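Input chain follows. Return C-alpha cells only.
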Amino acid sequence: MNTTHSHSAYIFTISFISALGGYLFGFDFAVISGALPFLNEYFQLNAWWEGFLTGSLALGCMLGCVIAGTIADRFGRRPGLMLAALIFAFSSFGMAMSSTLSIFIGMRFLAGIGVGMASMLSPLYIAEISPAEVRGRNVSINQLTIVIGILITNLVNYKLADTGPEAWRWMFGLGAIPSLCFFLGVIWLPESPRWLIQKGKIQQGESILQRIGGEEFVRKTVRDIQQSFDSSERPSLRVLFEKGIWPAVVIGIGLAIFQQLCGINVVFNYTSTIFETVGASLDRQLFETVVIGVVNMLFTLLAMWQVDRLGRKPLLLAGSIGLSVLYVIIALLLKYQAPPGLLSLFVLLAISTYSTSLAPVTWVLISEIFPNRVRGLASSVSIVFLWAAYFVLVFTFPILADQLGTYGPFWLYSFICLLGSVFVWRKVKETKGKTLEDMDQAFAGH
C-alpha cells in the first residue's frame, strides 16, 4: 500500500513539474488580453495589426513544435523542455523592453517558439511516464497549469492596470520568473523511459520504470515498448502516411484544429473587446478576465476527475454541442446590447463547458493515440495544425468583428462546433484505460 502511494506521489510530482510548461502557455495566452488596451494605444493598432500582433505567438508556436519534434526524437524529451524554458525567459524580457511594434512582434514570435515546444513536449512526456489508469488525469495536469497561468496572469494584469500607460511592459516582463522556475524543475526530471528504451538504453529506462510501477510493471512495459518500435531511427514525415498510422494522424490534426476553431480563445484573448461592446468600463473588462480565469481553473479541476472516469469521447461530444448552443445565445446578447452581467453569465458557461471537454481532452488524445515509434513526430505535426488554427482564429476575429459586429463571428463558431461534434462522433475511438502500446492498433483503422 505504501509502495503504491510512493509510486503515485513520484508520478504526480514529475508530471506536475513537466506540466509547468503549460504555465508558460497560459501566461502568454492570457497576458495579451490585459495588455491589449495598452498596446492598442501605444502602437496605434488597427484591426489588422491587432489580430496579427495577437496571432504572432501562434506563428512562433508552429515553428516551436517542429523544433521540439526533432529534439524530442533525437536528444530526448528533457533537453527540449529545458530549451523551451530558456527561450521563453529571454523573449519575456525582450517584449517588455520593446521600443517598436516590429521588435515586439519579433519577441512575441520568439516567445511562441518556447510555448510551442512546451505545448508539444509537456503532455508527450507526461503520457510516456504515466501508467494507463492515471494517464488522462496526469496529462490533464498540463491543462491545469495552463489555466493556473491564465488566472495568475489575469490577476497580475488587473493589479498592474492602474500603474500607467507603460503597465504592459511589466505584464510581459514578469513572464521571465515562471520560465526560470520551470527550467530549474526540469533539471531534476528523469528522461522518458520510453525514449530511453527506444534508443537502446534499456537499463536506464528500467530504472525509471521501477520508480513508476514496480517489477511486474517494468517487465510488461519494457516488453510492450520493444515490440512497438520497428526501429530506433527517427521517422520521416512519409511514415505518417502509412496505412496503419494515417487514420490516427487525421484524428489528431482534426481534433487540434477543432479545439481552436471552436472559437473559445477569442473570449480569452479579446475579453476587453467583447465586453466593451456592451458598454463595460476598462476596469470591468479586466475584472471579467479574472473571473474567467477562476471559472476556467475550477472546471479544469473537475475535468481532471472526469477524463479517466467518463472517458474522452463523451466529454468531447457534450462540449462541442454545448458550445454550439451557448454561442448562439452570446451572439444574441451582443447584438442586442445585453447588460454586462447577463453576458458574463453565458460567457462563463461557455468557458466552463470548454474547460471540462475540448480543452483537456484534446491534449490527452494527441499525447496518446499515436504509435510509439512516431509519437514525437505525429504529436508535433498535430500541434502545428493546432497553432495554425489558433492564428487563423485570433487574426480574423478583430477583422470579422469590425465588418460584422462583435456578435457576428459567434454564429460561425456555433456552426463549427456542430461540425466538430459530427467529426468526434464518427472518427474518435475511446481510449480510457488503455496502455499506449494497446492503442497502436486502436486508431489504425481496424
